[in-house]
Amino acid sequence: MPGTLLFNRGCFAQVLEGPREAVERTFERIQRDPRHADVNALEFAPVGRRGFPSWSMAFVGRSAPGEALYGGIAGESGFDPALLTAERLFATLRELVLAEEAEAAPVA
Protein backbone atom coordinates (compact mmCIF):
# COMPACT_ATOMS: atom_id res chain seq x y z
CA MET A 1 0.00 0.00 0.00
CA PRO A 2 1.51 3.35 -1.00
CA GLY A 3 1.95 6.11 1.51
CA THR A 4 4.36 7.46 4.07
CA LEU A 5 4.99 7.26 7.80
CA LEU A 6 6.47 9.71 10.31
CA PHE A 7 7.34 8.88 13.93
CA ASN A 8 8.32 11.10 16.83
CA ARG A 9 7.88 11.10 20.60
CA GLY A 10 5.79 7.95 20.60
CA CYS A 11 3.39 9.23 17.93
CA PHE A 12 2.98 8.13 14.34
CA ALA A 13 1.52 10.06 11.43
CA GLN A 14 0.70 8.04 8.34
CA VAL A 15 -0.78 8.65 4.91
CA LEU A 16 -2.39 5.63 3.28
CA GLU A 17 -3.14 5.71 -0.45
CA GLY A 18 -4.89 3.31 -2.76
CA PRO A 19 -8.31 1.95 -3.58
CA ARG A 20 -10.91 2.88 -0.95
CA GLU A 21 -11.52 -0.72 0.14
CA ALA A 22 -7.80 -1.40 0.60
CA VAL A 23 -7.30 1.80 2.61
CA GLU A 24 -10.32 0.99 4.80
CA ARG A 25 -9.07 -2.58 5.45
CA THR A 26 -5.59 -1.31 6.34
CA PHE A 27 -6.95 1.40 8.64
CA GLU A 28 -9.25 -1.09 10.38
CA ARG A 29 -6.31 -3.47 10.87
CA ILE A 30 -4.26 -0.65 12.40
CA GLN A 31 -7.13 0.26 14.75
CA ARG A 32 -7.52 -3.37 15.92
CA ASP A 33 -3.80 -3.87 16.54
CA PRO A 34 -3.25 -3.84 20.33
CA ARG A 35 0.10 -2.09 19.84
CA HIS A 36 -1.75 1.02 18.64
CA ALA A 37 -3.77 3.40 20.80
CA ASP A 38 -5.71 6.59 20.11
CA VAL A 39 -5.82 5.98 16.35
CA ASN A 40 -7.54 8.87 14.58
CA ALA A 41 -8.18 9.72 10.95
CA LEU A 42 -7.56 13.38 10.17
CA GLU A 43 -9.08 13.04 6.73
CA PHE A 44 -10.50 10.31 4.51
CA ALA A 45 -11.12 11.56 0.99
CA PRO A 46 -10.61 10.58 -2.63
CA VAL A 47 -7.80 12.33 -4.47
CA GLY A 48 -7.08 12.92 -8.14
CA ARG A 49 -3.59 11.45 -7.92
CA ARG A 50 -1.35 9.91 -5.33
CA GLY A 51 0.95 12.09 -3.29
CA PHE A 52 3.54 9.31 -2.88
CA PRO A 53 3.39 7.36 -6.16
CA SER A 54 6.96 6.02 -6.13
CA TRP A 55 6.85 4.66 -2.56
CA SER A 56 5.28 1.42 -1.44
CA MET A 57 5.63 2.85 2.08
CA ALA A 58 8.17 5.48 3.02
CA PHE A 59 9.52 6.20 6.48
CA VAL A 60 10.64 9.82 6.50
CA GLY A 61 12.47 12.23 8.76
CA ARG A 62 15.79 10.53 9.36
CA SER A 63 18.08 12.54 7.03
CA ALA A 64 19.66 15.95 7.49
CA PRO A 65 17.43 17.72 4.90
CA GLY A 66 14.43 15.94 6.38
CA GLU A 67 15.35 17.08 9.86
CA ALA A 68 15.03 20.74 8.86
CA LEU A 69 11.58 20.14 7.36
CA TYR A 70 10.57 17.82 10.18
CA GLY A 71 11.72 20.40 12.72
CA GLY A 72 9.10 22.78 11.35
CA ILE A 73 6.18 20.47 12.05
CA ALA A 74 7.62 19.36 15.40
CA GLY A 75 8.28 22.93 16.48
CA GLU A 76 4.83 24.16 15.47
CA SER A 77 2.87 21.37 17.09
CA GLY A 78 5.33 19.53 19.33
CA PHE A 79 4.11 16.71 17.10
CA ASP A 80 0.82 16.80 18.92
CA PRO A 81 -1.64 15.19 16.49
CA ALA A 82 -4.45 17.24 18.03
CA LEU A 83 -2.75 20.39 16.71
CA LEU A 84 -2.12 19.11 13.18
CA THR A 85 -4.39 19.62 10.21
CA ALA A 86 -4.58 17.00 7.49
CA GLU A 87 -3.38 19.52 4.92
CA ARG A 88 -0.33 20.59 6.96
CA LEU A 89 0.61 17.03 7.78
CA PHE A 90 0.28 15.87 4.17
CA ALA A 91 2.31 18.82 2.85
CA THR A 92 5.09 18.23 5.38
CA LEU A 93 5.25 14.50 4.72
CA ARG A 94 5.34 15.17 0.97
CA GLU A 95 8.24 17.63 1.42
CA LEU A 96 10.11 15.10 3.55
CA VAL A 97 9.65 12.32 0.98
CA LEU A 98 10.86 14.58 -1.83
CA ALA A 99 13.91 15.57 0.25
CA GLU A 100 14.68 11.90 0.98
CA GLU A 101 14.32 11.04 -2.72
CA ALA A 102 16.64 13.89 -3.72
CA GLU A 103 19.23 12.85 -1.14
CA ALA A 104 19.11 9.21 -2.30
CA ALA A 105 19.34 10.09 -6.01
CA PRO A 106 22.67 9.15 -7.61
CA VAL A 107 24.92 12.09 -8.43
CA ALA A 108 25.53 12.36 -12.19
Please give a structural write-up:
- The chain has helices at residues 20-32, 64-77, 86-104, and strands spanning 3-8, 11-16, 58-59.
- It is α+β, with helices and mostly antiparallel strands and 108 residues long.
- It has one domain (3-104).
- A 3-stranded mixed β-sheet has the order 2-1-3, with helices on both faces.
- α2 runs antiparallel to α3 (86-104).
Query: Can you tell me the residue ranges where pLDDT is under 50 for at least 5 consecutive residues?
Result: none
Q: Assembly state here?
A: single chain
Strand order of the largest sheet: 2-1-3
Rough shape?
globular
Helix content: 40-55%
Q: Domain count, please report it.
A: 1
What is the CA-CA span between the terminal residues? 31 Å
Strand content: 5-15%
Largest sheet: 3 strands, mixed
The pLDDT mean sits at: 75
In DSSP terms (H or I, runs of 4 or more residues), the helix count works out at 3
Structural class: alpha+beta
What Rg do the Cα atoms give? 14 Å
Total beta strand runs: 3
In sequence order, what are the helices and strands, one letter per element? EEHEHH
Outline the fold blueprint.
Layout: E1 3-8, E2 11-16, H1 20-32, E3 58-59, H2 64-77, H3 86-104
Parallel strand pairs: 1-3
Antiparallel strand pairs: 1-2
Helix pairs in contact: 2-3
